[in-house]
Amino acid sequence: MKPVIFDAQLYSLPSTNAWVFVSLPLDASDEIRERTSVPRPGFGSVYVTATIGSTTWTTSIFPESGGGPYVLPVKKTVRSAEGIAVGDTATVTVEIDLSRY
Fold this sequence. Notes:
Layout: E1 4-9, E2 11-13, E3 16-23, H1 26-35, H2 41-44, E4 46-52, E5 55-63, E6 70-73, H3 76-82, E7 89-96
Antiparallel strand pairs: 1-7, 2-3, 3-6, 4-5, 4-7, 5-6
Protein name: DUF1905 domain-containing protein
Organism: Agreia bicolorata
């Protein structure tokens, strides 16, 4: 699977401002679901390598309930390193290692 590259706005959930996310495009989310359809641990999470700017990290993406897009948590260390905050738009690259599925 090719890396998914997209622009997305950072947001936090009303229930907690500590967690910040970006949503993957719906078409990419659908392809990820199809290509990783084996049972997955941890709320259906998928292991990824993510990049914003010059910062790359390994993490997991999680599906929204009801078949919505996958969401990528963006750590505070990444936001600080890249000078981004909730409401900013970032260019994000997500790579999935399909050999794990």
